[in-house]
């Protein structure tokens, strides 16, 4: 039975007991009441009043009993609520004790982990101290090596100066022999023999040959899909390198017109190409805002030069060291890169975009041709503008430095080709032709290796060749059916190569 039923039963028993007691008392008092009523009839009214009072008191007792019963019910209900609350609190206490035990276990585990971490940290600190000591030793060795390297460089420079003096003596001897052999009619034989000896004794010298005026298309090569915007020759070689909108770099044997090698990995159209002087690395300027550097021997991309925020339209390698590369992009910046480390060493910011650039022969200055038509010279170490000249009325599209570094050829959208003295930035000559129209903002013209001729392509598919000394056209080449975007002359003097907007490459002899 529930607590409530037990309470009700208790109340019923209590009521029955009270009633029974009342009846018993009433039965016990009735004889006395009768006995007393007889002698005291005269006092009946008084006893009647007392009886009524007793009945009133009895009713009050009943009312009090009822209130007590109600209070007992309330107290039983409160007792049940308190008991339920007690059970809930006992359950909560049990859960809290369980959580406390778990927390103690976790604390113990964390304490163990902390001890292990402290031991590991002590071990790492000891290793750090050892590495620091090793670093100090290596730093000392590096300083000693740097001092030794500086000493070796000084000795090497001294040796180079001595070699240069010997070379000057050999050149003077050569000139004296040429003068004497001219008188005897053996000029050609003397040039072949003596010049060959002098050139072989000059360490690192480039092969030199007189250029010829080209007139015949030797090979017509379907090189790239979508157009070819850049071509160049390897140094001291007849191997041609081309880059196109199909994102590939291809190397061609110009003697047979056959494809010898292909390089892949560029993520955008190739807008310009450069090659190091040892013919080991090819650098491509791409519309994907990056420059890609290939190792020719392995055919793999060894560097991806990132930092420009717009398409890269021009690139060149230093003529002194194959380590330094310069690039220009349509984010109005010119960046100098360390090819050995693979990152940018200097950034030049200018308000006019640069379409073409090239290193000077000193390896410390660069020439840049801009959309505003100005030719500018920069110091690559400080980024300072050294000088500038208004070269064209419209955008400059191409720059080509002569082999001796004395003059630079500029081409512009005003369809003019100007020669400037690099030292004074004075115009040495202006070349134009009826029908010769520059095809794009990156149309590349070129100068022959001996500095005697200029070749430039036109939007009508023709190529004009000027003689610098005569300041006149000596040849007009017609084979292309699309606008010619670039021309390049082999350092061997021949052949001349050209590429057009349809991706056709022609070689001329």
Walk me through what this model shows.
By secondary structure, the protein is of the alpha+beta class. It has 3 domains: about 1-35 and about 60-90; about 135-205, no CATH class; about 215-509, YVTN repeat-like/Quinoprotein amine dehydrogenase (Methylamine Dehydrogenase, Chain H, 7 Propeller), CATH 2.130.10.10. The chain has helices at about 5-35, 45-185, 185-200; strands at about 215-220, 230-235, 240-245, 250-255, 260-265, 270-275, 280-285, 290-295, 300-305, 310-315, 325-330, 335-340, 345-350, 355-360, 365-370, 375-380, 385-390, 395-400, 405-410, 415-420, 425-430, 445, 455, 460-465, 470-480, 485-490, 495-500, 505-509. It has a 4-stranded antiparallel sheet, with no helix packed on it. The longest helix has about 140 residues, at about 45-185. It is elongated. It starts with a helix and ends with a strand. It comes from Durio zibethinus (Durian). InterPro entries: ATG16, Autophagy-rel_prot_16_dom, RNR_small_AS, WD40/YVTN_repeat-like_dom_sf, WD40_PAC1, WD40_repeat_CS, WD40_repeat_dom_sf, WD40_rpt. Pfam families: ATG16, WD40. Keywords: Coiled coil, Repeat, WD repeat.
Structural class: alpha+beta
As a whole number of angstroms, the C-alpha radius of gyration is 54 Å
Indicate the CATH architecture of the largest domain: 7 Propeller
- What about the largest sheet? 4 strands, antiparallel
Question: How much β-strand is present in the residues?
Answer: 25-35%
CATH hierarchy, class of the largest domain: Mainly Beta
What is the count of DSSP helices, taking H or I runs of 4+ residues?
Answer: 3
- Tell me the overall shape: elongated
Secondary structure: helix percent: 25-40%
Query: Which fold name is given in CATH as the topology of the largest domain?
Result: Methylamine Dehydrogenase, Chain H
User: Termini separation (Å)?
Assistant: 122 Å
Q: How would you name the CATH homologous superfamily of the largest domain?
A: YVTN repeat-like/Quinoprotein amine dehydrogenase
The domain tally reads 3
- Annotation, overall tally of beta strands: 28
